[in-house]
Design a protein that fits this description.
The structure is a homodimer of 242-residue chains. Chain A has 242 residues and is of the alpha/beta class. The first copy, chain A, has a single domain, classed as Vaccinia Virus protein VP39 (Rossmann fold, 3-Layer(aba) Sandwich). Chain A is built from nine helices and eleven strands. Chains A and B meet through β7, α8 and β10 of A and β7, α8 and β10 of B.
C-alpha cells in the first residue's frame, strides 16, 4: 500500500501552498508540455490516477470530456476536489494506486501527474491501466525524473570550481527513496527510464513521446531562477498508446 | 562532417589497447545486453554503422547473416577490419555517418555500437536508416549515456561526506561536448534520452527496448571495481523496429 503522505497535516499544508495548488494547471511549469501531447478531449472517458485537488479533472470536463473519474489516496484532497467541482461529469473516489482496480476497456485516456513515483508496484499499475483503456486509448503521465529521484542527497551542491552540480549516485539502484520534502520521511520509488519504458512496452503500450522537462526560453525569461532546471531534469513526461 | 578521431595516432593506439579492441565483443561489458535484444541473424542483410575493427560484422556472418556491410570513418579501423576478415559475405567501406547514404529497403538489421554520439545530425542519420531498412527491420544501437556525456567535468568526484558522486550539470543543454579521452579534443554531441527516442519515433520507428546499462551481479563479482557503474549509467542501449 502506498504511503498516504498527502494526509499528513504538515505535508498537506505545505503542498496546498505550492503554485500548482494555488493556481492549478497554469501554476505547474510542465503543464504546457503535457497539454501538447494530450489527445483531443471532447467525448472522451477519462481517468485521472492521483487527481489531487481535481484541477485536471475539471479541465478535462471543461474541454468536453464525456466523463472524468478522479482517483486519489488522500481524503483531504478528494474532499477539496469535491467541494470545488460542480460539473456532474466529474466523479471522485479514494483509491490506492498500488491496489488499483478499474473496469476493463472503459476509458479513452488515462492521465496522471506526479503520482507514480509513490507507487511501489509499477508493473501492476501499468497492466491494470492497459486493461482499462480501449484499443487506441492514450496514457499520458508525468513522474519525478529518475535523475532527480536517485541520489542519496538530492540537493544542489558545488564542485571544486564552485560550479553548481547535481550529485548523482545510485542511478541504477532502483527501489525505495526516503526524503524530507514538505514533511519528514516521504517514501518514493526510484526506477530508471529504461525500466519505466520497458514496463510500458511489455504491457503492450506503444511509446509516443518521451520528454525530460526543461523550461522554455520564455519561461527562463519570466523565471531566471529556473536556470538550474537545465542542469538536471526534474520531471519526466511520457505519452503512450494502447 | 564527423571528427575522424580514430585516425589520430594517439587515439588509435589507446583505443587499440581497450579490452573491446583486444578481446572483441566478449571484451565489451555491455555485449550480453546487446545480444539479448538482437533479432535472429540467419539470412539477414546487416549494416553496421561505425563497425570499427569488424568484430560485430564477423559475428553476424558467423551466425548466418546473408550479407554484412561494415561502415566506418576511420581508414585505420577499416584496414584492420579487412585484414582480419576472411568471410566474403562481409564488406567494408569508409563512410561518414553525418553524410550517410544507403540504398532504400535493403537491410533487415541496422546495428551500431558506441558511434552515434560522434554524429551531429542524428535526425538525418535516423531518417536514412529508416529508409534503408525493410518494413519490420530492426535497429539496435548503443551510445554513451547522456548522463555520462552531459557534464562540464565528466569525472567522478566526492561530496562533503566523501561519497562518490557524478557531478551532473548541463543535462538539458544539448550539443557539442569536447573531452579528453585517449586524445585531446574529442568532439561528441550530447542529446537527452527524450530527444533520441522522439527522433526515432518521429521517423517512424517503434521503440522495443531501452536499457541504461549496468553491470550484472555476476559481472560485479568478477569486476568489483565496476560498482561505480551503478552510480551513473555509461551506456544506453536502444532496440527499435521499422
Amino acid at each position: 500500500m502506498a504511503q498516504n503522505i498527502y494526509d499528513k497535516p504538515e505535508f498537506f499544508e505545505g503542498y496546498s501552498q505550492l503554485s500548482r495548488s494555488v493556481h492549478g494547471l497554469d501554476g505547474a511549469a510542465e503543464w504546457d508540455s503535457i497539454r501538447a501531447v494530450l489527445p483531443d478531449l471532447p467525448g472522451k472517458r477519462v481517468v485521472d490516477l492521483g487527481c489531487g485537488f481535481g484541477w485536471f479533472a475539471r479541465f478535462a470536463a471543461s474541454q468536453g470530456a464525456a466523463s472524468v473519474l478522479g482517483l486519489d489516496l488522500s481524503e483531504n484532497m478528494i474532499a477539496r476536489a469535491r467541494r470545488e467541482t460542480a460539473d456532474e461529469t466529474v466523479q471522485y473516489r479514494i483509491a490506492d494506486l498500488d491496489r488499483l482496480d478499474l473496469p476493463e476497456a472503459s476509458f479513452d485516456l488515462a492521465y496522471s501527474s506526479l503520482a507514480f513515483h509513490y507507487v511501489e508496484d509499477f508493473a501492476r499499475l501499468v497492466a491494470t491501466t492497459h486493461a482499462a483503456l480501449v484499443a487506441g486509448g492514450d496514457f499520458v503521465f508525468t513522474i519525478e525524473h529518475p535523475i532527480y529521484m536517485a541520489p542519496t542527497t538530492p540537493m544542489w551542491t558545488t564542485d571544486g570550481d564552485g560550479r553548481r552540480i547535481w550529485p548523482l549516485d545510485g542511478y541504477s539502484r532502483e527501489g525505495k527513496r526516503t526524503t524530507d520534502w514538505l514533511a519528514r520521511g516521504v517514501v518514493k520509488y526510484h526506477r530508471t527510464i529504461g525500466t519505466t519504458l520497458n514496463t510500458l512496452i511489455g504491457a503492450g503500450f506503444a511509446i509516443r513521446h518521451v520528454e525530460e522537462w526543461r523550461p522554455s526560453g520564455e519561461q527562463l525569461r519570466d523565471h531566471p531562477e529556473w536556470a538550474e532546471e537545465t542542469d538536471r531534469p526534474m520531471f519526466l513526461l511520457i505519452a503512450a498508446q494502447r
